[in-house]
């Protein structure tokens, strides 16, 4: 039995990864370590009813808790735990620097202390900054790290911390840099679930700026399968860009959601732009495709429809969030009250 230590496994992508790995492998057990911040949710794991899954509530910055929780003979650490929302990092960066940088260092130290075979860092395309509008440029693994938001800066710093652990102490590390994920169980502060939830409830859909920023969307399970490939066969010390060649203008994503739900486009409300808003992300995934034989399995049309269906069928999950602290966040962020559900 191989033992994995997964951090952030109660969040959006981490919980999808845990589910997929347990479903597709019989010889793996997982310690799932998560602080359950506002973004962590045990509901995300409620169908993971498996003796091979152990959940531990803990903070990746807490050295003793981490050392106690990493199992002896651990094969790999997968670090999903992070503060992940750009807008929150613009409001206050402290927690981003703490979790995303110090937390990564603590985990790397634990990997060394416990002789963990491989450390997989879940990074992001945002560390490479922004591409020019309407250009043919793409992020490759050789693109310079040019983070623009406090969130992206903290994730880029984590990559440097990782590099130092490898160069100085020989920790076996690999890194994934993925584009924008979408799918079930994504916290509704992010574009796609926010727009779906608002459209379902006839709340206005707040689009930043001119709506012409471009994001490169990938279905969450495709990202998780790429992480698996990188863990299995990625070259030590390397980063792999992950993307599904699926660039979209934000405004087109929002209109597709309204059309799928049969809601009018006049729910769209253009609002003040995000500070330092990255214009375009576009990923060249040739390395992970050619070296590791990864390809996305989900089409955009099917992925978006199945995501919308999940939110329609799980309105209690969304309402729990929308009726909690998120209401205050929303009001402070958008200057508007969400309708009661
Ligand atoms: P998320 O916000 O949904 O989940 C983050 C999880 O980490 C939560 O369960 C939270 O409780 C946990 N966490 C936060 N601080 C912690 C701490 N100090 N100790 C332990 N656990 C803590 O985020 P997500 O969208 O699932 O993203 C997961 C990872 O993937 C992040 O590292 C993010 O940077 C990266 N990533 C995300 C995207 C995306 O589009 N969402 C794209 C590329 C990379
Ligand atoms: O209300 C909104 N209106 C809007 O126009 C929100 C929340 C977003 N947007 C725009 C901003 C972006 O151009 O939509 C786009 C996507 O925004 P987010 O969902 O906040 O994602 P982004 O800022 O692109 O960052 C995401 O991708 C990379 C994730 O949140 C990161 O965790 C990941 O690393």
Attribute tags:
Rossmann fold; UDP-galactose 4-epimerase, domain 1; binds thymidine-5'-diphospho-beta-D-xylose; 341 residues; seven-stranded parallel sheet; 18% strand; alpha/beta; three-stranded mixed sheet; 41% helix
Give a topology summary.
Elements: E1 2-7, H1 12-24, E2 28-34, E3 53-57, H2 63-69, E4 74-79, H3 86-91, H4 94-113, E5 118-124, H5 150-169, E6 173-178, E7 180-182, H6 191-200, E8 205-208, E9 214-219, H7 220-233, E10 239-242, E11 247-249, H8 250-261, E12 268-271, H9 286-292, H10 300-313, H11 315-322, H12 326-334
Parallel strand pairs: 1-2, 1-4, 2-3, 4-5, 5-6, 6-10, 7-9, 8-12
Antiparallel strand pairs: 9-11
The protein binds nicotinamide-adenine-dinucleotide and thymidine-5'-diphospho-beta-D-xylose.
Explain what the structure shows.
This protein is an alpha/beta fold. The protein has helices at residues 12-24, 63-69, 86-91, 94-113, 150-169, 191-200, 220-233, 250-261, 286-292, 300-313, 315-322, 326-334, and strands at 2-7, 28-34, 53-57, 74-79, 118-124, 173-178, 180-182, 205-208, 214-219, 239-242, 247-249, 268-271. Strands 3-2-1-4-5-6-10 form a 7-stranded parallel β-sheet, sandwiched between helices. A 3-stranded mixed β-sheet has the order 7-9-11. It is globular. The mean pLDDT is 98. Bound molecules: nicotinamide-adenine-dinucleotide and thymidine-5'-diphospho-beta-D-xylose (TDX). Nicotinamide-adenine-dinucleotide (NAD) is lined by residues 7-8, 10-14, 34-37, 39-40, 59-61, 80-84, 99, 103, 122, 124, 155, 178, 180-181, 187. Nicotinamide-adenine-dinucleotide binds at residues 7-8, 10-14, 34-37, 39-40, 59-61, 80-84, 99, 103, 122, 124, 155, 178, 180-181, 187.
């Amino acid at each position: 039995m191989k033992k994995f230590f997964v951090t952030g496994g109660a969040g959006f992508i981490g919980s999808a990864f845990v589910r997929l790995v347990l479903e597709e492998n019989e010889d793996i057990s997982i310690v799932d370590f998560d602080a359950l911040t506002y973004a962590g949710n045990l509901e995300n794991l409620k169908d993971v009813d498996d003796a091979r899954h152990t959940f531990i509530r803990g903070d990746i910055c807490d050295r003793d808790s981490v050392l106690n929780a990493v199992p002896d003979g651990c094969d790999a650490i997968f670090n999903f735990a992070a503060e992940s929302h750009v807008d929150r990092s613009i409001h206050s960066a402290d927690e981003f620097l703490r979790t995303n940088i110090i937390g990564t260092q603590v985990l790397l130290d634990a990997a060394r202390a416990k002789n963990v075979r491989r450390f997989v860092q879940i990074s992001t395309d945002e560390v490479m900054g922004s591409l020019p509008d309407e250009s043919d440029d793409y992020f490759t693994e050789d693109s310079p790290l040019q983070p623009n938001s406090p969130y992206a800066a903290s994730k880029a710093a984590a990559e440097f911390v990782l590099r130092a652990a490898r160069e100085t102490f020989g920790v076996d590390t690999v890194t994934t840099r993925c584009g924008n994920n979408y799918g079930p169980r994504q916290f509704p502060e992010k574009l796609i679930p926010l727009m779906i939830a608002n459209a379902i409830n006839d709340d206005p859909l707040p689009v930043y700026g001119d709506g012409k920023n471009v994001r490169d969307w990938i279905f969450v399970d495709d990202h998780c399968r790429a992480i698996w490939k990188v863990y299995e066969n990625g070259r030590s010390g390397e980063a792999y860009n992950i993307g599904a060649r699926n660039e979209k203008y934000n405004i087109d994503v929002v209109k597709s959601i309204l059309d799928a739900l049969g809601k009018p486009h006049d729910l769209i409300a253009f609002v003040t732009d995000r500070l330092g808003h990255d214009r375009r992300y576009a990923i060249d995934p040739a390395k992970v495709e050619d070296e590791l034989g990864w390809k996305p399995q989900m089409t955009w049309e099917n992925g978006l429809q199945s995501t919308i269906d999940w939110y329609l069928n799980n309105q209690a999950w969304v309402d729990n969030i929308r009726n909690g602290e998120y209401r205050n966040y929303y009001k402070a962020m958008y200057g508007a009250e969400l309708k009661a559900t």
